[in-house]
Structure formats: C-alpha cells, structure tokens
Amino acid sequence: MPPTLFISDLHLSRERPALVEAFRALLAGPVREAAALYVLGDLFDVWLGDDQLHDPLAAGVATALSASADAGTRVYLQRGNRDFLLGERFARAAGATLLPDAIVHPLYGTPTLLMHGDQLCTDDLKYQRFRAWWADPSHRRRFLALPWFARRGIGAMLRSASRRANMGKPETIMDVSADAVVAAMREHRVARMIHGHTHRPARHELVVDEARCERLVLADWYDRASYLRVGEEGIEARTYEGSSRG
User: What is the DSSP letter of 12?
Assistant: First the structure.
C-alpha cells in the first residue's frame, strides 16, 4: 500500500523561491507515489483571503497541488496560524479537502489525531486570546470584507507585532503544553498525534491513561524541505533536495 506524507510550516512566499521550487518538485516526485498528502497548516507565510489566488505564487501552488490530486493522490489541508483564512475556494482550486482544526484519520490501522498544533500551546495566553478572536466567524467575515490593500496592511502589522512579541517570550511558552497534549489525546481517544507549528521536529513517547502513545512533530521548511512518511512498514522523517529519489 502506498505511503502517506505529512508536511507543515512551509511558509511559502516570494522571499523563499528555492523552497517554492522544492515544494513543486516534491509534488511532482514523492507525492505522486503516495496515497495522500496532508498539509497541516502554514502552507503560506501569510494568507489574507482566498482572493489571494490572484497572486501568481498562490495560483501556482494551487495548480501544482491540483495536478497531484488529478494524478491520484488525495490532498488534505489544515489551516495554520499564518493561513487561518484559507478557505474552500482555495481548496477547490487545489483539488484538496479542507480539514477542521483537529481530526482523527485512520493511518494503516492506527487512528491518528491531526492538527496544526498551535491550539496545544496553552501557556501562551496572549496568543490563545488572539486565536479565539480570529476563530470567531463574525470577525473573519468583517476582516474579509475589507479591501485587499487594507487586509495586506493589517497583515503586515500583525506579523511585525507577532515577531516582537515572540522575541520576548520564553521558549517554553511557545511550545506545546504537556497537559494539553494529554487532554487532546484523551478527548479524541487516540494513541498517536501528528502536528506542526512548534518547529521542533521530534518523536515523543508518552503514557496516557496507562496506554503507550506517541506524538510526532513535523519540521518547518525555513532551511530545507522535509516531510514525514508514514506507511505500513513504519514512520520516517525525510529531507528533500528536489531530486527524483524522494
């Protein structure tokens, strides 16, 4: 049975053309041999609404994803904290299924909880208040009703404010809370979780209600392309240099 691939925190932008090209190569290579591709948030560095599809980079990413879907690979998208306004219009253009913030999918016999991961950083109270604000549909509608130039300006201010705020935060606050991880796994009744957001790739083992569990954290794409390969034969984190070997 073909493997399933997971990626997150690509933060694609014009400022990182090499990683955009690496993403296109990944879609044309290993993704075509996979049963499914899951993008668990922050595909883009910023997303200000689905009318951003007028941008050549966004349109090209959607086209490349759609080509993989047309070739037979199922494509799933989750929103991240940078692209929380990603909507159904983009998903349709990408030939993808837009997932809720947390969902359990069976992977080779193991129900697995999938999420971006920012909702697990519960010690960062200021960010969680902001997350609750933008999760309100009425706030989203008001923002999306603004002209494009206004949204772009607000987006730039928010990114700048976020960078300043993160510089003053302890590293532990920006990581997931152990209690939040246990609560999520208990709520969804799973023994495995895959998420991104923290940019701290690792495979963690833990015990929840006397059951052995694991938490897999995806790598970001700031320095290099990477993906998590999950298959019947096991789980492997891989970097990708754009070659056909995958």
Answer: B
Domain ranges of the chain: 4-240
- Type of residue found at 13: S
Hey, what are 53's tokens? 């599809």
pTM (predicted TM-score): 0.93
pLDDT for 123 equals 93
Instruction: Give me the residues of the chain with pLDDT under 70, please.
Output: 162, 165-173, 242-246
If one counts every other C-beta atom within 10 angstroms of the C-beta of residue 84, the result is 17
How far is residue 20 CA from its own chain's centroid? 15
In this structure, are residues 12 and 45 in contact, taking their beta carbons and an 8 Å threshold?
yes
Bridge partners, 235 (sequence order): 230
Is domain 4-240 classified as CATH 3.60.21.10?
yes
Longest CA span, the chain: 53
What pLDDT shows up at residue 243?
A: 46
CA distance 12 to 16: 7
3 state SS of 234? strand
